[in-house]
Every structure is written in C-alpha cells, then in structure tokens.
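ok posting inputs for the zinc ion job
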Amino acid sequence: MEKLKIAIQKSGRLSEKSLDIIAEAGINLINGSRKLISIASNFPLEILYLRDDDIPQYIADGVADAGIVGENVLVESGARLDIVERLGFARCRLSLAVNKSSDYSDRSYFNGKRIATSYPATLKRWLQENSIDAEIHIINGSVEIATGIGLADAIFDIVSSGSTLISNGLKEVEKVMDSEAVLLTAPDINDARRDILDELLFRLRAVLASRNNKYILLNAPDDKLDKIIGAIPGMKSPTVLPLAMKGWSSVHSVVNENDFWQVIGKLREYGAQGILVIPIEKMIV
Ligand code: ATP
Ligand code: ZN
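and the output
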C-alpha cells in the first residue's frame, strides 16, 4: 500500500514537537526510538529522521514527500517547495546584531563590514535587496561569539528571546525574517500520497485549532446576556441554557487564545460569574 514519507529533524529543537504533533493527530509510531525510519501502525506514514538542513533537498529530490523544518531553513535552501501548514512552534526570527556599544544608525552601517552567519544565502539576498556591500563569513555554530573574538563586525543569526545576544554584548538592529516550524511538500507528489497528506493535514489542523482555543462556561445574569454574548468572539453563536436559579443563564463558547484575557476581562466587567476554562482535545474547523 502507498505510504507518505515525512522527514523530521533527527535531534534538535524541532524533533520533540514534531513527534508530539504527529502523536496528537492519533498516529502511532512503531519504533519511535529515532533510528533512521519509523513506521506508523495505524496510518499510512513513514518517518525519516534527518538533519534539518538536509530536509528541503530530500523533499525536492523525492526521497521524502513532506517534512517539518523551520521556515528559515527552507528559505536558506532556496528549494521550491510548498508550505502546506504553519505549525506554530519553534518561533524565532533571523536578525542582524552588532556590538552594543557601536554607533549603529541605519543599514548602510553594514557597508564594508564583515558579518558572521550560518545562513549565508538568506543574508546575501537581503544585502543585495538593500544594495549593501558586506563580507559574509560562514560559520557553523556559536555565531554569537564571532564579534567578541574579532572574527566579524556583526552577526546574522536566529534570535528568540534575545538573551543570547545580550549575554554576548550584542544588540539586535535589523530583523530580516520571522520563522516558525512549517510542514512542507513537493508540488508534484502523486495523487495517492496527496490524499494521505490531505488526511494528515485535516488532523493536524484539528490539533492546531485545539491548541489555540479554549472552551469556556460561565453564568450570566439575564439582563446582561446580550452584552456578555457580544463580548465573546466565539465560533458561531454561543450555547445559552437557562439555570435553575431564575434570572440567570449558562453560556458556553470557544475563545481563541489570542483574545483570551481580553474577553475574560470584559465578561467579568459585565457580571459573568463561575467562569470555567477547559482545554479542548480536538477541534474540527
Ligand atoms: P541539525 O543538527 O538538525 O542541523 P540545527 O543545530 O541546525 O540542527 P536547531 O538548533 O535544532 O538546528 O534548530 C532547529 C530550528 O529551530 C531552527 O532552524 C529554527 O527554525 C528553530 N530555532 C532555533 N533556535 C531557536 C530558538 N532559540 N527559539 C525558537 N526556535 C529556534
Ligand atoms: Zn541544521
């Protein structure tokens, strides 16, 4: 039977979360001990464990049908692949940073400077787009120490909290791109595999939606029901049930993580009581 081959990072920041999302989609891996390949027992899927940098090329060559990498790795590879879904983890950005004491004013600062990075292709493109003539020094790993040891005047690297930059006496001055883990595929996979990918995608979206939403229950005084319902930007219309106590109703709805605290604040202001917030196991959207 036809199987979909998905490449994920063998060991690194993406590995655990890639396996988690596959497991949450109800897919059971038989030899999940990260050898070279795992097979699913209850879904037509095979997992290949690779270095993240190699994944775009393997997909482009047809060795794997799909894969999970940071968007930064896709951009750096230059491979022509489709992003099927953004997965919401490994969020970071690629930025330029300089010594915190430097008198940085604008991008022209980089003219004639040496910039250390593990992402030369992405940096080169940005320099060209901005008509900057700088020297790129490719180093793999510990880019953040390059200025301290006199190897470079600036670095171009992954930033998340910024604490690594600070502890190396650097300041972030230009953000070049945002990144998060993405599910990739080649544009030309065959129909049978495309069908499997679609089924997987349906499940992954249910997992992602459940992660981003909470189920809420609350008691509302009837004279404030309209205001309270208006404050909940739920899926469709909320469920409203009368309570045994006269003049009160129970309201059920789904609230997105992004709006969550703002919505809760309004609900309290309008007199909602007994607010319960419940995680959602799966959400079919
Ligand atoms: P490999 O050995 O597979 O080549 P690697 O060392 O290149 O691994 P990791 O450090 O595991 O890669 O990072 C994998 C991806 O995770 C990066 O490409 C990036 O998208 C994301 N990432 C890296 N650092 C952070 C961070 N501090 N916060 C969030 N996401 C990050
Ligand atoms: Zn890598």
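notes: The helical segments are 15-24, 55-60, 71-77, 120-129, 163-167, 191-212, 225-231, 260-269. The longest helix spans residues 191-212.
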